[in-house]
Write a structure and sequence with these properties.
Chain lengths: ~280, ~325
């Protein structure tokens, strides 16, 4: 169940890599921003985080477009070291800007359905988890439709495959990159908003998710959207299973080890060969 | 260091004399000299990072792993067995080298972003272990180096000046290792890998093995510097010595700001970044937490956008500009 949410927040990361060939180390910070947008929408407007998710998407989409235009665009052809450290710098800036703006406290929302759960036969399913999962599936489907059938989606995939050929076909690769980056971070922010009902927002929440997202994406194959879905579900299962065996503070350790192992033995991911 | 002209030798000797005499210009137990010590230490760390990242273009984001291993090794040996940090430093280097070997074996085939991701995860693994293996490391509360009568034998000094000379010596050693590697066959192989890994493989360079050798040297040196850090600060915790931003990224950033792949780059970078950071800390920390880190991140972005090859590239760039002006 958690896996579905992991898939959505990680699709953003894989989209950015797939289209532009850049690993965005700052991606998880946009999840944090999405959480804060949803939090303030709840605190000021009384909006439910699930309804605020599209708002979080739009706000971070615009921010992402601006960041792409001003910063990322300049290093697309630069050496890898520049790409890596530009996004690392972005990570530090976003995290600390959030610390300055929002303070270091932990914030959570209260919703009427927060503690309720549904009984499905012998299973109890917590409503916030279910809602987050449903929203994730919906947004994942929307993205899939968008990539599959809209002109923009096809143009974006063409740019990912071969920017030069795409340009010859009259596609503005620059605009596609901007769209992909904005869409990628927007989607991650959307995921941040839908998990707010059962998590707390803080400026450092991104770090908790960073390695998780990378594990999901690498497990499924960097750049592959379907891979992110498979990877997300797999990580959800790995986490639940490791929770049964290991104490809670070692849960992340299991993820790290899986992560390094996948990178070492199958860097193209589980679906890498199929693509 | 052959191949320098007599004029360059004189310059270098003058610089060395200046570096050795510098502490006398500062208050012996003041704040300024402590910053200088840290700058020298971080210069040495960035230089160690430079061996793998600068020469072979394998960008590590996990060097904090080796640094932390070094800090804990010597400190634990001192606490439990009373072993002097001078020996602890060598134990640290051996363990650091072994850790580098361990992580390099599966990951050195990876390039670019993938390698950066894998090393980042390795550093985080070490941080999690450091935090959760409380019986060994003292856990998140940190660990203190037992304070004894200041003595050279225990690497504890009454005057910060002595620490300064120790750091200076460390920087010189690491820089000499860097220069020696750069000029050796290993260095040529590493640069062949940097220029074009496939071509290097074709002409008979065992690229993976070459990179692993460099990584082990780099990891061992970083761990030894971790010991120096522990003896200088007397207190540390897993989040500090295994930290991504506090160690891994900072080492890399210093090398990049100064000039990645050059011997002078990390030194210039550290002398610029560390005092600037301390200054920002002093000015801003009273107002709001996070502001000085924000400056740190902005600086990193700016350097990448303006001149990703760092300070070392600015000189030649200016010369070229001037020459262009002459022609007109």
């Amino acid at each position: 169940m958690i896996g579905g949410v992991y898939a959505v927040i990680s699709i953003g990361l894989t989209l950015v890599f797939g289209v532009m060939g850049i690993v965005n180390f700052a991606q998880a910070e946009f999840l944090m921003l999405g959480m804060f947008v949803a939090y303030y929408a709840w605190a000021w407007l009384g909006l439910d985080p699930l309804l605020a998710a599209p708002l979080a998407f739009v706000v971070v989409f615009l921010l992402g477009a601006a960041i792409q235009r001003v910063l990322i665009r300049r290093v697309l052809k630069a050496p890898e070291v520049a790409q890596i450290f530009l996004t690392v710098g972005l990570l530090i800036v976003l995290e600390n800007a959030a610390l300055l703006m929002f303070g270091s406290g932990f914030r959570s929302v209260s919703t009427p359905y927060q503690t309720s759960s549904l009984q499905l036969g012998p299973l109890f399913i917590s409503v916030p988890y279910l809602a987050a999962f449903a929203m994730s599936v919906a947004s994942g489907l929307a993205l899939w439709l968008f990539l599959k059938s809209s002109w923009f989606g096809r143009a974006m995939r063409a740019t990912a495959q071969d920017p030069m050929a795409a340009r010859l076909m009259g596609i503005d690769a620059d605009r596609m990159h901007m769209l992909a980056f904005a869409l990628g971070v927007g989607l991650t922010a959307f995921g941040g908003a839908v998990i707010l009902p059962y998590l707390t927002a803080s400026p450092t929440v991104g770090t908790q998710f960073a390695v998780l997202m990378f594990t999901v994406v690498v497990l499924g194959g960097l750049g592959s959207v379907a891979g992110a879905v498979v990877g997300g579900l797999a990580v959800g299962i790995i986490q639940s299973l490791s929770a049964l065996v290991f104490p809670i503070q070692l849960q992340n350790l299991v993820l790290f080890v899986v992560f390094i192992a996948v990178l070492a033995f199958r860097p193209k991911g589980m679906l890498g060969a199929a693509r | 260091m052959s191949g320098l002209s007599p004029r360059q030798w004189t310059g270098l000797a003058l610089l060395a004399a200046l570096a050795i005499a510098l502490p006398f210009a500062f208050e012996p137990r003041g704040y300024g000299i402590r910053i200088l010590c840290l700058a020298l230490l971080f210069a040495a760390m960035a230089q160690a990072w430079n061996i793998v990242a600068g020469l072979a273009n394998q960008i590590s984001l996990g060097h904090a792993a080796f640094f932390g291993i070094g800090a804990y090794t010597s400190t634990l040996l001192l606490i439990h067995f009373g072993i002097t940090p001078w020996l602890g430093m060598f134990a640290a280097a051996i363990l650091g080298g072994a850790a580098a070997l361990l992580i390099s074996l599966p990951t050195m085939r990876l390039r670019g972003h993938y390698f950066a991701l894998a090393t980042l995860a390795f550093g985080e693994v070490m941080r999690v272990i450091g935090n959760s293996w409380g019986g060994l490391t003292g856990g998140p509360v940190g660990i203190s180096v037992p304070f004894a009568q200041p003595s050279l034998a225990l690497m504890q000094f009454r005057e910060t000046r002595s620490s300064y000379w120790l750091m200076l010596a460390a920087l010189v050693v690491v820089t000499l290792v860097f220069v020696a590697i750069k000029r050796s066959r290993l260095g040529y192989r590493l640069r062949a890998i940097k220029e074009n890994a496939d071509a290097a493989e074709v002409i008979g360079v065992d690229t993976t093995r070459t990179k692993i050798i460099a990584a082990v040297i780099s990891g061992a040196l970083t761990a030894a510097l971790g010991t120096l850090y522990a003896q200088f600060q007397f207190f540390f915790d897993p989040d500090t010595v295994f930290g991504v931003a506090s160690v891994s990224v900072r080492m890399a950033m210093i090398a990049i700001v100064g000039g990645i792949g050059t011997a002078a780059g990390p030194i210039l970078g550290a002398l610029f970044v560390i005092p600037l950071e301390e200054f920002a800390n002093q000015v801003f920390s009273a107002q709001a937490a996070g502001l000085s880190q924000l400056v740190f991140g902005l600086l990193l972005i700016l350097v990448i956008l303006i001149e990703p090859r760092g300070f070392m590239a600015i000189g030649p760039r200016l010369q070229r500009l001037l020459r262009k002006g002459d022609r007109r």
